[in-house]
Amino acid sequence: MTEKSDTPVLDLLASMTEDSIEASSLDAETLMLVRVAALVAVDAPAASYLLNLGAASELEIDAEQVRGVLAAVAPIVGTPRTVAAMGKMARALAFELEVEADEA
User: Fold this and answer.
1) What pTM does this model have?
2) How many whole angstroms separate alpha carbon 76 and alpha carbon 22?
3) Does residue 34 contact residue 50 with C-beta atoms inside 8 Å?
């Protein structure tokens, strides 16, 4: 019998992400940039940016590359969604900095 997890939804999302990464033929950096573009396209919440930008930073993806993604998708998704994404990214990064400060 499998042990029950305290975080079944997060476990499912992690499993889905792992399956997606394994199924993709993209290199890790390109995959993360595509994921950021998809987050903008679906108007994802700040928490999604927090998780994905954290993973992107581990791959040394910088702010300039993320800005490049925003510039690339803006004509497709529109100004409101692009501006909303920028605000959500800022909130996610502010939250991360707050957590780091609390841990220090």
Assistant:
1) 0.80
2) 28
3) no
Q: Which two tokens stand for residue 3?
A: 């042990």
Burial-class residue 84 by CB neighbours within 10 Å (0-12, 13-18, 19+).
middle
Residues 46, 47, 48, 52: is their CA dihedral positive or negative?
Answer: positive
Sequence-ordered list of residues with C-beta below 8 angstroms from that of 70, at least 6 positions apart, any chain: 40, 82, 85, 86
Give residues with Cβ within 8 angstroms of 97, minimum separation 6: none
CB 16 within 8 A of CB 25: no
Tens digit of pLDDT for each residue in 53-83?
888 888 999 999 999 999 999 999 999 999 9
